[in-house]
Write a structure and sequence with these properties.
binds adenosine-5'-triphosphate; 15 helices; elongated; eight-stranded mixed beta sheet; BirA Bifunctional Protein, domain 2; binds magnesium ion; Rossmann fold; 2 domains; alpha+beta; 16 strands; about 20% strand
Length: about 425
């Protein structure tokens, strides 16, 4: 028996061990897109594969994603091109923005939603194919752009009724040169304590020392208590930017915690980084994460131009949220109301089945708000059974008698009452309610 690939899940009309039903996905997506529309952000749809070097360059060689999580292949061209299933959306979005010159005279504010792929150990809230909603806002170096994105995520949580379940953590990574100075100080501090660090952190000391701050190891965390702090290395401009972001958040009534150890796993961030975390999902606590990446546009432009001269960058900030984790959280704290799978079921005796088809078709035409189901042209009894199972509020019954008298019978599926009507008046908008 051929099965789905490990970590790649079917999303069905019913809940499974690893996924909520499609009806919940659709309610979630609708709510999120509605908030994006209210902020005037615009959708983009990007390819699922990109050249491997795009991710390696954008995300950084010494990150978890590039080191061990990418699904990479070569295609059939000659010589073969290394390609990768996208592990995240920012690199592709920046590639597209450069390729199509979208930054010329404009500050695009863009969003996308779709599958991402990472080779990780599957567990609750962590899959190999998962889904993100991502937002990328280009062109403003000012802190209001940071606050706008955070305010938008906050409104999403409010719309979903989960705002009390999520806390906002923010930090500033400063500018690259400030971070470099801090990195050096951290390495200096940790080097003679190297053998007390956990194995991952020992390796990261030379590859990506800032990630050591993220370590879950208790001994490593104990060592970090007296380590130099990133915020002590921020220049005046970075500090002012961070202070202004905080001021905007306070004005908007959005509470936050400053987490000086929040560094994010990807290389491209500078200045503001943020995460929304919950205590309801165990180790998979982060539902949404983002930050500013003012250097990435320039960095990828340089890659494209084959020249060593750094290209002009454009400021940008973005975030991504994991839709599976959001659905788990919603299920845990404020589940979606069931949506009706069916409002009206049309049942027609096999002798007058064509009339039934016609009736259902015209009802759908006139009442696009209703879900109208029919069954195949089997016996009236077996069609009625299907109507019973469908969860419909009303069943319309048509047999020869009804056709002869130009009537329809309507059964209220809750009360079992059945009545005959001369016309379809019941389905006018005013009358259907209730
Ligand atoms: P984590 O620390 O949980 O591995 P991350 O820092 O790798 O997360 P990001 O790259 O910031 O995650 O992605 C943004 C969001 O996408 C995460 O906060 C999470 O909600 C979701 N996400 C990331 N990886 C997965 C995955 N393998 N399965 C499900 N959701 C994921
Ligand atoms: Mg990860």
């Amino acid at each position: 028996m051929i099965k789905s690939i490990k970590g790649f899940n079917d999303i069905l009309q019913v809940a499974t061990d690893v996924s909520r039903p499609c009806s919940e996905w659709r309610q979630l997506e609708k709510t999120l897109v509605n908030v994006l529309d209210r902020f005037g952000f615009e959708q983009i749809r990007l390819p699922i594969v990109e050249e491997t070097q795009l991710f390696a360059r954008a995300i950084g060689d010494a990150t978890d994603i590039v080191e061990k999580e990418m699904f990479s292949f070569t295609d059939k061209s000659d010589p073969p091109t290394p390609i990768t299933l996208r592990p995240e959306g920012t690199a592709g979005a920046v590639r597209a923005v450069i390729e199509h010159n979208l930054l010329r005279g404009d500050n695009p504010k863009l969003w996308y939603m779709g599958p991402m792929f990472r080779y990780e150990q599957p567990q609750k809230g962590r899959y190999r194919q998962f889904h993100q909603l991502g937002v990328e806002s280009f062109g403003s170096e000012l802190p209001d752009a940071d606050a706008e994105l955070i305010a938008m995520t906050y409104m999403m949580w409010q719309s979903l009724g989960i705002d009390h379940e999520l806390t906002l953590q923010i930090n500033s990574l400063g500018e690259p040169e400030e971070r470099r100075a801090y990195r050096q100080a951290l390495v200096d501090y940790l080097t003679d304590k190297k053998d007390q660090l956990d194995a991952d952190s020992q390796r990261r000391l030379s590859t990506n020392p800032l990630r050591i701050l993220d370590s879950k190891d208790v001994n490593t965390q104990a060592l970090l208590v007296d380590a130099p702090k990133l915020n002590e290395f921020l220049g005046e401009e970075s500090q002012a930017h961070f202070a202004k972001v905080q001021q905007y958040l306070t004005t908007l009534g959005i509470e936050f915690d400053i987490n000086p150890k929040l560094v994010r796993g990807l290389d491209y961030y500078n200045k503001t980084v943020f995460e929304w975390v919950t205590d309801k999902l165990g180790a998979q606590a982060t539902v949404c994460a983002g930050g500013r990446y003012d250097g990435l546009v320039g960095q990828l432009k340089t890659l494209k131009s084959d020249s060593n001269k750094p290209a002009q960058s454009a400021p940008a900030i973005g975030f991504a949220m994991g839709l599976e984790r959001l659905l788990l959280l919603i299920q845990a704290v404020n589940p979606f109301a069931d949506t009706a799978a069916c409002d009206v079921f049309v049942v027609a005796h096999p002798d007058v089945y064509e009339q039934g088809l016609k009736y259902a078709q015209s009802l759908r035409q006139n009442r696009p708000d209703l879900r109208i189901k029919t069954a195949s042209a089997t016996s009236l009894k077996s069609q009625m059974k299907k109507a019973d199972k469908s969860g419909a509020q009303l069943t319309v019954i048509l047999a020869q008698d009804e056709i002869d008298k130009q009537q329809i019978s309507i059964k209220n599926m809750q009360t079992g009452e059945q009545a005959v009507y001369v016309d379809t008046w019941l389905f006018s908008a005013e009358n259907f309610a209730g």
